[in-house]
Amino acid sequence: MTDAHAPVPDHIRPGLRVLFIGFNPSLRSGETGHNYANPNNRFWRILQGSGLTPRLYRPEEDGDLLELGYGFTNIVARPTRAADEITREEYREGRSLLRRKLEKAKPRVACYVGKGVYEEFRGSRGRIPWGFQEEETVNGVKDFVAPSSSGLVRMKLEEMIDIYKELEAYLNG
Q1: Which of 66, 84, 65, 70 has the alpha carbon at shortest distance from 24?
Q2: pLDDT tens-digit profile of 123-137?
Q3: Is 74 left (phi over 0), alpha (psi -120 to 50) or beta?
Q4: Which positions fall inside the Uracil-DNA glycosylase-like domain (predicted)?
Q5: How far is CA 71 from the centre of its chain?
Q6: Quick one: CA torsion of 5, 43, 21, 159, rounded to 10 degrees?
Q7: Domains in the chain, CATH or no CATH each
Q8: How far is CA 138 from CA 7, 34, 65, 101, in A?
Q9: Measuring CA to CA, how many Å separate 79 from each of 54, 83, 85?
Q10: Which parts of the chain are beta strand (E)?
Q11: Backbone phi, then psi, for 44, in 5-degree steps?
């Protein structure tokens, strides 16, 4: 176990198929040092159910997904109980850091795990559809907006999986 306030390490390298981008780590992720570690988070089940992974992975295996071409980061590194605890200053700093990460790593797809993550990165609100966006935020990187996998989100698991299946079809189609 690590300090609950310690950032969870990024798993990024050039040439990724997908870089999954969350708001920030949960307290549980901060304690364990692994992404999507809260037992109520549905992220790992969504990846398996959509066909993005061949089996159900555990949070402790987040680094192993680099072998599948998947990486992880967050717009804000500080773990919190809920995203509404993130400050405007943290978002401002996070936007700049995230842009540099995307420009350096150049993944095929930036998958924003939550519309709010995408809105914070773009710095704009509005009618944002699920799935691929018309404009790229970073040149050469396709933007894909997916529902947050947090257990706090009321969307049914099957609906989330259907949205992620569009990403799987693009990568493997």
Answers
A1: 84
A2: 878 889 999 999 999
A3: beta
A4: 9-164
A5: 9
A6: -140
A7: 18-172 (3.40.470.10)
A8: 24, 26, 23, 10
A9: 29, 9, 9
A10: 18-22, 70-74, 109-113, 131-132, 142-146
A11: -65, -35
Tell if the pTM clears 0.70, that is, is over it: yes
Torsion of CA 83, 155, 41, 141, to 10 degrees: -70
Q: Tell me the pLDDT tens digit for each residue of 130-162.
A: 999 999 999 999 999 999 998 888 899 999 999
CA dist., res. 45 & res. 90, Å (int) = 29
Rg of the chain in Å (alpha carbons) = 15
Q: How far is Cα 149 from Cα 1, in angstroms, rounded to an integer? A: 23
